[in-house]
Amino acid sequence: MKLIPIMAAWAFLQAGPGGKVEWFRDMALARKKAELQQKALLFYFHDGGPICKGYDDTVFSSDDVIREAHKSVPVFVDCSKEGAHEDLRTKYSVSAMPTLTVAKPDGAPYKEIELGDPARVAAQLRKIAEQFPGVPSFWTFSLEEAVESGKERKMPVAIYFHDGKTDVRQLAENIRKKLKSRVDKCLWVEMAATEEDSNPVKVKYGFRTLPTLGIYDPRDKDMATEPLGLFAIFEHDQPATVQKYFDKALKKFKR
Fold it and tell me: Which CATH architecture has domain 6-131?
């Protein structure tokens, strides 16, 4: 176990598991955000014991640590049950808890953070954020976020359905080449799928082939089944053709 100085043990009010850092609990969403924004992943391995709780109440409730942690993608890994997350513990060589370890945006192991007082941890996290500062993301990292933002900003949501074989950054570049400044009229989400009729994404959204672009009104309760526009978008398609279908769909969006 890694110990925290006693002098800091009750410096903050009791916090929940993981302290006051807003940890991702959904591993898939966290990895998607790291991939799209090219930020480091911070995995906090936690067994629910008193030492972990001590860090929750101090280090991970420190304003400096919270600020620096949120510059990356913080993920809470609950290991309170025996055998939980053995695959991750092996991948990142976690032998004791708590452990805070850093992974590259693609999930590859990078380094472990030395736990101690808040200032020391914050300084290490600051260096990680400098090494992985992220990039402006064309994509909204989740459909839920795009829908909520679309409702607030009164903007349509564009979902690009693809086979998952092309890097998402390259996909964004391809779309910009086709639509140019029109891309700024939507909030964009990418969604990997297959053309098999049993594929749940295909079943839900009703496209026929990949890649396909769907334009939706986020205020519509039947958004998935009632698109403003749904059309295939192939590499050989001329920009003018894609822009024609895109503009036709956007005309249906009522602000």
Answer: 3-Layer(aba) Sandwich (3.40)
DSSP strands (E only) in the chain: 41-46, 73-78, 99-103, 109-113, 157-162, 187-192, 212-216, 229-232
Sequence letter at residue 144: E
Query: What is the spatial distance between Cα 35 and Cα 25, in angstroms, rounded to a whole number?
Result: 17
| Separation between Cα atoms, residue 110 and residue 13, nearest integer Å | 32
Pairing of strands 187-192, 157-162: parallel
- Is 179 in contact with 169 (CB distance < 8 Å)? no
Neighbours of 101 (CB within 10 A): 21
The model's pLDDT over 85-98, given as tens digits with 9 standing for 90+, comes to 999 999 999 999 99
CA neighbor of 159 nearest in space, from 182, 176, 181, 142: 142
User: Residue 114's Cα: distance from chain center in Å?
Assistant: 25
Under 8 Å CB-to-CB from 224, ≥6 apart: which residues? 204, 205, 206, 216
- The reply to whether 143-250 shares the fold of 6-131 is yes
The tens digit of pLDDT for each residue in 150-181 reads 999 999 999 999 998 888 888 999 999 999 99
Is the pTM here over 0.85, yes or no? Answer: no
End-to-end CA distance of the chain: 56
Please report which helix (H) or strand (E) contains residue 111, including its range.
strand 109-113
- Domains in the chain: boundaries: 6-131, 143-250
Q: What are phi and psi of 246, to 5 degrees?
A: -65, -50
Residue by residue, DSSP assigns 193-223 as --S-TT-HHHHHH---SSSEEEEE-TT-TTT
CATH architecture, domain 143-250: 3-Layer(aba) Sandwich (3.40)
Q: How far is CA 1 from CA 98, 175, 205, in A?
A: 7, 49, 49
